[in-house]
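Q: What changes when magnesium ion is included in the input?
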Amino acid sequence: MTTGSGLDIAIVLAAGEGTRMKSSTSKVLHTIAGRSVVGHVLEALKPLNPKDLRVVVGSSRESVEPHIKEIAPNATTVFQAERKGTGHAVQLALEGIQAQGSVLVLAGDTPLLTTFTLQEFLDVHLASGSHVSVLTAQLPDPTGYGRIIRDELGAIERIVEQRDATEEEQEIDEINTGVYLFNASALVNSIHKISNNNSQGELYLTDVIALIKAESNKASAVLSNDYTETLGINDRAQLAECASIMRDRINDAHMRSGVAIIDPTTTWIDATVKVAPDSTIHPGSWLQGTTSIGTRAVIGPRTTLKNVFVGEGASVVESNCTESTIGADANIGPFSYLRAGSNVGVGAKVGAYVEVKNSTIGAGSKVPHLSYVGDATIGTGSNIGAATIFVNYDGVEKHQTIVGNEVRIGSDSMLVAPVSIGDGAYTAAGSVITEDVPAGSIAVARAKQRNILGWVLRKRKGSSSDLAARKAGATD
Ligand code: UD1
Ligand code: MG
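A: The predicted holo structure follows.
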């Protein structure tokens, strides 16, 4: 396989309505494995490095066009105001183009196509000397697709759409995947000769094949080995089917590179995520965006990470984390919630029912139980007692809390920001800390306890508490 050579023009057809999705979002903008449907197509195309890349947009142009500009800045978008068929879309895409070399045409709704298949198809096409090649597939159920009509010698003669096919032709299980390669000048010569004389009154790109053959030029049908690659998305069920095939593909690749995925059917990893070998992913986990997992890390079960960096040997159990950094050997969860800007240091711990936002927790520090840490910087080796709240919001603005190194915050402390706790300082359990605490001191900020002796014996006479107290020797 010769990667990245031989392709002059690529045309992606993405102007369709996608009516069957029943969605306000354009069909090609729905996502699979963290990437838009058309994004997958463009990603597969990228290594073929077409000199001229054109994407035909139409329906939902206002959202599709900026998306294309963002993910494929080199692409030219072509506007098809009225959807008059795939042939019409290609006519528009070819306007003003320098018709040289080979042209690849494919649909924007086939996200499972791989670079490997496209490159192989291109190599076969170039070697065959054909003026047009069609990528075909044999489907268990070919209903709805254009069928490949071959002559007695097995050469492709033409393509007939389902709606225009005779009963006999409908028996054919070899279908047009909608991926074509053309000799540019042959395509330009014939694309304006097609007519809309068919059941849909559309200009069919598929009619070009018979026209090219009529000019005594060679046409080929190239059967692909894996029909799942060419599955298109028209409705939500097909979207889910393609997503699960993509999931399996991604998980297989990670497992082959040394990642332990305990249950690949419930583990969803975006195409953009990096997972180092020798890490383990437990069932029900969803890794999204730019997430990156270090070696020996343990993720899950039931953990969602979006744009999170997880260091080597860290564990994240039954937790939900976004836009955060988790240092090597840190432990998160179970049931932790790391919101944007959480930065957990090497060997640090964030435990059960702890929420962290926009805060740094230094190396070896611990927030083990039932706490909220917001807009804080915690130094190294500090311990935040159970149920401590960083009171960061005064009702109008957010304020910062600074906790030094080797600090011991007593359970159920309220650290009312802005406030700063010096190195090695303590706070007494149940304190409401409103003033800075100097290094090495203990802050006690709560009412002094008083015991009223015999109160139960006088006020709750005869109760089980009274009896128990008397048995213990209490008197009034
Ligand atoms: C097309 C093929 C059919 C093939 C099938 C594979 C034709 C006539 N038929 O049928 O042989 O088996 O794909 O999936 O080509 N589009 C535009 N502008 C238009 C019409 C379509 O950009 O005016 C785009 C659509 O967004 C889509 C692609 O072209 O991405 C294919 O169009 P679609 O209407 O889905 O064609 P099919 O009926 O599926
Ligand atoms: Mg289609």
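Observations recorded in class: The pocket of magnesium ion (ligand 2) is lined by residues 232, 234 (CB under 6 Å).
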